[in-house]
Specification:
Blueprint lengths: L11 E3 H8 L3 H9 L6 E2 L5 E4 H10 L6 H4 L4 E5 L3 H11 L4 E5 L2 H11 L3 E4 L2 E2 L2 E2 H10 L7 E6 L5 H6 L4 E4 L3 H12 L5
Parallel strand pairs: 4-5, 4-6, 6-9, 9-10
Antiparallel strand pairs: 1-3, 2-3, 7-8
Helix pairs in contact: 1-2
């Protein structure tokens, strides 16, 4: 099957894939990985693997074009907000570009994140019983979730700097759904339509 025939593109890429994207030798990719230039992990057999968003980050950092293989399919998002009207609005705007898992209960969402394995999480920073900054910190420190990007979608502008320092990819003011979509499309390497 040709690369473009796959309706669900891979979530993981090999060193050979990344070498092809960058038009460099395979040894160069191994050197970059060893130097920490590109985020990666190793399989039990010691083979390099790269997550889609880590490859995108690397390509953007060094000015490489984003190949079609990285912009195919629907990236997975987890949306967490205690307001059902906000979730309904987000669902309308984001469902065409993203595969959504929507949670009004933040604790239910946290339990589900491990099985959903989203590319990103959209999170309100203040919800009943949940401190979004603490959650961000916890996601960053756990090996199983440290790679998941988080976009804060909140009306608490005073928390912007703290959220970004805690590891959020972006902070978007609640109500600006178009800006949120654009932020997520930039994060995922999707072409604007």
């Amino acid at each position: 099957m040709a690369e473009n025939d796959n309706p669900n593109p891979p979530e993981l890429f090999t060193a050979s894939d990344v070498a092809r994207f960058c038009q460099v030798d395979l040894k160069t990719i191994h050197n970059w990985a060893d130097k920490g230039e590109i985020r990666h992990f190793r399989t039990p057999g010691r083979h390099l693997r790269f997550r889609r968003l880590d490859v995108l980050d690397f390509l953007r950092k060094y000015g490489y074009p984003v190949p079609e293989a990285l912009s195919q399919g629907k990236p997975k998002l987890v949306l967490i907000d205690d307001d059902p009207n906000v979730l309904s609005s987000l669902r309308r705007v984001l469902s065409r570009r993203f595969e959504l898992s929507v949670y009004q209960d933040p604790f239910e969402a946290l339990v589900a994140i491990g099985s959903v394995q989203p590319d990103a999480i959209v999170l309100d920073i203040r919800m009943p019983g949940l401190d979004g900054l603490h959650l961000l910190d916890r996601l960053r420190t756990l090996e199983s979730t440290s790679h998941i990007r988080v976009v804060i979608y909140s009306s608490h502008e005073d928390q912007r700097d703290a959220a970004l320092q805690a590891g959020a990819y972006d902070f978007v003011m609640k109500g600006d759904v178009a800006e949120l979509r654009e932020s997520l499309e930039r994060l995922m390497g999707l072409a604007q339509t």
